[in-house]
Design brief:
alpha+beta; TIM Barrel; Immunoglobulin-like; 4 domains; seven-stranded parallel beta sheet
């Protein structure tokens, strides 16, 4: 079947050649770079370079769901692009919308120009959402745009408009498909017989369609979604990532191709999960991500992804611009959504906001495109982005949201000296330089009265060399929880400062203990506080760490023990592990390891494991509990890891001191709907983090 699908697609693609990128790719973006699957770090950076430069893109959710627009059978139901699922519409009642799809006002060039004028560098459009309807004429299904009164190739026309204007086309593609006869699981109200359904045949169909999309439109990003249902596995995600990267070695793929996304926070958890960037949804990470982690916040302008005529709760332009700046200052991309109506028109409110964002970007785009994350942890007056200059210096863009205290921007802990002409207004360099002065470890920029106004006033400050910002020092500890002793070491961003610390929880002062190069031995519980000092004055915030000296949990004595853990399963709809505490078991047995092999059904169940953990040596042990949905792990009466509640795959950790021997174990887990997952790992005095081996589990 797969070979048949691929051969059909190959024949179809031959009639629709994509123009060479060299003829249309934007000259101010790094070129796309094809790399092998086993790419080096530099090769990965080359492949991601254009996307990191772009920073700002347009998301478009459009399909049959724009026709009801949040209404069904005369009732206001909501649901937008999820209306089939939210209103429990049978596929046989939903799919006839295909014959009503006739967006006579669709103008791809107008769409592209609105995105371009807003300062967006790429467009991501739904090639197929969860309802299965395709916005291109597919050789593999009749449920596509070719079978509508409209009949035109929407993706093809949009791709051509993007190439003409130097906008990069990217495609969203749903793994989940509510109407395809082979997709499983079915919705509860979908009574179509599932006996002949073949999920692997559906996966082959999806691969065939992705080959169509790659061959015909060469999307620079494949943006997957709908990966959370239990039929899509980690192995499927790995295989799909490798498949599309083989089709196009330059393509960038989001982390929703695999099952490693951590809920709406969107990051990829550890464990070999595929995906080139994380996808926070409707939220911005509070502090950004560690260096080298790529991410993109996707967000609606109002409340809905797809069109709903009554959804007028649009975010103000000021809020949208500041969200863009906040995201860029944390090293991320911003994918801002528009849901066109059934005629192919952007809502007026979206048009107005795109134009207003574009007005701000026209003067300030340099402070967004191609910039890196801020060098400051926090700025009371706004945000900072930055870029490297050819001579080795660095340019800081100071995004001033609020007028600073005493009329001066304070850049805390910035030890670099100003370079070039110092500071000036980005929108009006000819207005002349601003006064830059040093105040201890800080630099200050004096602002004239009335300079800060509107959405975001952007100043430029060039500094000598890469930014060196001293904030809270780092506290490195061998063991924060210890039996007899542990060792502390301190470090700062610059050797121009000294570090002073206390062990009793008080704020460090100039007379507090001076940290040296030799680690500090700690033999009792302590609250460590450390701070940097520059020329005798405190710099930045205070770093704090609690150190706990503990007594190991006593092991228990048993007359006999046998391999394996007891398990019981419980049926019901649960929202926390306590919900099935009094539910009668539906089955019971013994398991050699902790897994979900005994799950009684795909959704809405609980499992309890009980027995003993055989600890090989007295010491400190760390446990990592990864689950979807909730779980709780206890040894004796001590809850070691609490990962309870309804959530996507989420990892939580706990530390405990254990005596050598047997410890009563209890692990409760429940699954609501969608993806399921349960992984318990541990590390100890003699071994790194790993799954608990069967020989350590007793009953």
């Amino acid at each position: 079947m797969i070979a048949t699908i691929i051969s059909i697609v190959t024949a179809a693609a031959a009639t629709s050649a994509v123009p060479p990128e060299s003829t249309w790719w934007p000259s101010d973006l790094p070129p796309r770079a094809g790399t092998p699957l086993a790419e080096t770090g530099k090769q990965h950076d080359d492949r991601m370079a254009w996307w990191r430069e772009a920073r700002f893109g347009l998301f478009i959710h459009w399909g049959l769901y724009a026709i009801p627009g949040g209404y069904w059978e005369g009732r206001r139901t909501g649901g937008a692009e999820w209306i089939l699922n939210s209103v429990k519409i049978h596929p046989d009642d939903y799919m006839p919308l295909q014959q009503q799809f006739d967006p006579v006002d669709f103008d791809p060039m107008q769409w592209v120009m609105m995105a371009k004028n807003a300062g967006m560098r790429y467009i991501v459009i739904t090639s197929k959402h969860h309802d299965g309807f395709c916005l291109w004429p597919s050789e593999l299904t009749d449920f596509d745009v070719e079978g509508t009164p409209f009949g035109r190739d929407i993706l093809g026309e949009l791709a051509e408009a993007c190439r003409n204007e130097g906008i990069v086309l990217c495609l969203y593609h749903s793994i989940m498909d509510w109407t395809h006869p082979d997709y499983l699981p079915r919705r509860a109200w979908d009574d179509r017989p599932a006996d002949g359904a073949d999920y692997q045949r559906y996966v082959a169909y999806m691969k065939g369609q992705l080959k169509e999309l790659a061959d015909r439109y060469q999307p620079a990003v494949l943006w997957f979604d709908g990966e959370w249902e239990g039929t899509w596995t980690h192995e499927d995600g790995q295989a799909m990532y490798d498949f599309v990267r083989t089709l196009d070695p330059a393509v960038i793929v989001n982390n929703r191709v695999d099952t490693g996304r951590t809920g709406m926070a969107g990051l990829t958890r550890a464990g070999g999960y595929r995906g080139d960037f994380g996808t926070p949804e409707q939220e911005i990470p509070a502090t950004g991500m560690p260096f080298g982690v790529d991410w993109e916040t996707c967000m609606t302008m109002n409340r809905s992804w797809g069109y709903q005529s009554f959804d007028t709760a649009f975010k103000p332009t000021k809020d949208l611009v500041r969200k863009l700046v906040d995201i860029a200052s944390k090293g991320g991309n911003f994918l801002l959504n528009v849901g066109p109506d059934e005629r192919g028109r952007f809502p007026n409110e979206s048009v107005e906001r795109l134009a207003a964002i574009g007005e701000w970007m026209q003067a300030n785009a340099e402070s967004i495109h191609g910039t890196a994350a801020s060098c400051f942890t926090e700025l009371e007056w706004g945000r900072c982005t930055r870029r490297d200059l050819p001579d080795g210096d660095q340019r800081l863009y100071l995004h001033v949201f609020e007028s600073p205290t005493a009329g001066a921007l304070r850049l805390p802990g910035l030890l670099n000296q100003p370079a070039g002409m110092g500071a000036y207004l980005l929108a009006n360099p000819g207005a002349g330089p601003l006064t830059v002065e040093r105040d201890g470890a800080d630099l200050t920029v004096r602002l004239p009265d009335g300079m800060v106004a509107g959405i975001d006033t952007v100043l430029v400050l060039d500094i000598e060399g890469p930014a060196v910002v001293v904030d809270a020092p780092s506290i490195d500890v061998s063991e924060p929880v210890f039996l007899k002793s542990t060792e502390l070491a301190f470090s700062a961003a610059s050797d121009q400062v000294e570090i002073r610390y206390t062990l009793d929880g008080t704020d460090p002062e100039i007379g507090s203990t001076l940290a040296g190069d030799t680690p500090v031995e700690i033999r009792r519980s302590a609250t460590v506080q450390a701070r940097c000092f520059f020329n005798g004055s405190p710099v930045g915030t205070i770093a704090t760490m609690d150190l706990r000296q503990v007594t190991p949990l006593r092991a228990v004595q048993t007359l006999t023990s046998r391999p394996g853990l007891r398990w019981t399963t419980h049926l019901g709809t649960f929202e926390q592990v306590a919900d099935f505490a009094d539910v009668k078991p539906s089955a019971e047995g013994v398991a050699a390891s902790i897994d979900l092999s005994m799950q009684p059904r795909p959704e809405n169940f609980g499992i309890r494991f009980t027995g003993f953990l055989d600890v090989p040596r007295t010491g400190i042990y760390r446990f990592s509990l990864d689950s979807d949905d909730g779980s709780r792990f206890a040894l004796g009466s001590t809850i070691v890891v609490d990962n309870d509640g309804l959530h996507s795959a989420l990892e939580k950790n706990g530390v405990i001191a254990l005596e050598k021997g047997l410890h009563p174990l209890r692990l409760d887990y429940f699954e609501g709907t969608g993806q399921d997952d349960l992984i318990l790992k541990w590390s100890g005095p003699d071994f790194e983090l790993q799954p608990i081996r069967p020989e350590a589990l007793k009953r």
